[in-house]
Amino acid sequence: MNTNPALAKVNNLIVGLVSAISFLVPWFFLTITYEFFEFNKIYLFIVIVCIMALMWSAKMILEKKVGVAKSPLDLPLILIITSYALSSMTSLDRTASLFGSYGRWFPGLFVIVALYIFYYLISTNVDSVKKIKAAVWFAVTGSVIASILGLINYFGLVLPLMGLQNRTGFLVSGTSYATASIAFVGAAVALMLSLNSKQAAQKLVCSIILTVNFIAATVFGGAIFGIALLTVVAILVLKSQEEDVQKSKAFRFPTAGAVVMFLVLFFLVPQTKNILQRNYPKEVVPSVQESWIISSTTLRDFPIFGTGASTFYLNYPRYRTLDQNYTNTWNIRFDKPFNELMNVISTLGIFGVIAYGIFIVVSVKLCMRSIRVNDPYRSLALVLTAGFIASLVLMALTYASFQSTFMLFLFMGLMTAETVVNTNKNWAKVAVISLSSKTQEAGAIVEDQQIIYRKEILHYIVALPIVALSVFGIYETVRQYIPEYYVRKAVDFAAIQNIEQSYDYQSKAIAANPNRSEYHRLYASTNIAVAQSMLSGESVSDQQKTAAQNLLAQAIRNIKYITETLNPLDPANWEARANVYALLIPAAADADQFAIQAYNNAIQLDPTNPILRVSLGGIYYGKQDYLSAGNLFKQAVNLKSDYANARYNLGYALYQLKAYNEAKTEFEAVQSLVQVDSEDYKRVTADLEQVKILLAQSAAAETKPSVETIERAASTTDQPTTPAVQEPLKKPGENVPTE
């Protein structure tokens, strides 16, 4: 054993940081960036990993050797990271594949590399059972903190001096599924800690943690999380030693009773069900069927490496089905599928599917091997296996968040570290790699041979790139973090109507990181708003006109850059471009043509979206091309026959074409789709009455265009019995300025 005090301090610092980040990830957040939660968790984690890597380099130099944990997991892990690297090289959006899609941030190659380094830091440097247990307890404690805060928010309880926490929907884990995922893993680990703890106090604490985490997983993840967790718990109990289970019966029965009582009250008893299942904002994802269709269709078109990590947001609008238009989420562009398995199929392709398949098979085999060894470490192996298996199960329940993937790598690393420490297991060990240089020293002779001095140099060779990679990681973290700080400042200033400061911070964000489309879209809309404000006064000076023209030109440059260079496959970019040109129609003679072209490109990338066709129809309506407008409105109705605003716009186009009977039919259809006595209902009723008056006055034959030219693929008489989720009614081109 090395007694070097400096070496011991370095190693303890590495292990201490493992415990610290395990405790912080479930609940850490900051309010200084645009997105409070996952973004800050990721970059806190990356900074800590970089610091740990620097310490690991120092440890190598102090030990004068290079040791790395080696296990059967190495090959599948190499395959997975290779799939991320290759898919990033061929990605439809390289920025998203490297650093995550905007607002989601995970997965991206940058953070995946950090997770891999984290795994090897744990498996190589956590060198005692005591240190492994400490990391586990910190992780479980962090999970229950996130669960408690989440449940407090869910049930509407108010905490003093916690302004943000008291806002409905504020979850420190980030999203409802992230909260459920953390609780899911925490509950599984707490169960095994309870069964394998020797002290009654520890068993009691673990039982409480298990109960709280189970409730949180069920509340935020739904019945599927509760059922899956019960299944995992049952399997783990069966795999535990009978004597451990018997020793825990004093806590087992009250815990099981509390869980069963909660499930009955939450799902079965009507009186309590209505109270416990609150109208709480939760994350929504596409259905299993919709996710599978999109993933399999994407695999057909991009078979080998997929479309790139974090590019599901591009796949969804391109491949979503018409059936999605008849759900309550019809107007949402999802950026994640139902679960991570479908995300891998869609974004990493066949190579990624094979890599993950090998990883799952090898992982399950190693877990089974680990818990079969009946030695003093078996209870710890069961705890670590519980966390690892629970993290794997989450891949089938929901998409992978950073929090759930962190738990996967944490328990995988700790499980490997336990195997390294355990002399009764031989499938993992720290391999010492050696590379020596030879030097000759004259005058030292033994049996007529010169003594050859060997100097170990590999630790210097390995330490140098690790240091370089760590410095690069910190630099890239700063480069990604600063623009998000600027965007938050811009939003805060905009909220208090300080447009000048908001504008400046948006400009700084783009200068710091010009590779995010969202920054350019926000900047373009701000330029337009400021220009409109300048031109809205009664007397506009020449200087103001010049400044407004410069702002409009800047908006056009930004919007052209993101559609033609940065990310031309994102329909949101083309939609933003169309909106910019639509706003310029009063000022530029050809703006309407550019808007039409942009909307057509957006429609090609999002072909089943009826909103785009209504917006494009509004441009034609403003040009008084009512036939083209009606054709587009009819296409929108064909895509979604219960789309009230599309039918309302179609009614107006038919009205302008003097097809009053058909217009009357559409307005009557709109009446059946909107809520009775709502403002929209009153509005369409007034329009309908006007059409009826015109019909009554039309006694003589009147020449008018044939309506047959307007495509009529869907019936206008078959209406849903219950109103669907609708937008507010708008007349054609209501948001499009006319000349």
TrEMBL record:
Transmembrane segment boundaries: 12-30, 42-62, 74-92, 104-122, 134-157, 177-196, 208-238, 250-269, 341-362, 382-402
InterPro entries per record: TPR-like_helical_dom_sf, TPR_rpt, WaaL-like
Region (Disordered): 699-739
Biased amino acid composition, Polar residues: 714-724
Keywords tagged on the record: Membrane, Transmembrane, Transmembrane helix
Name of the protein this chain belongs to: Uncharacterized protein
Protein species of origin: candidate division WWE3 bacterium
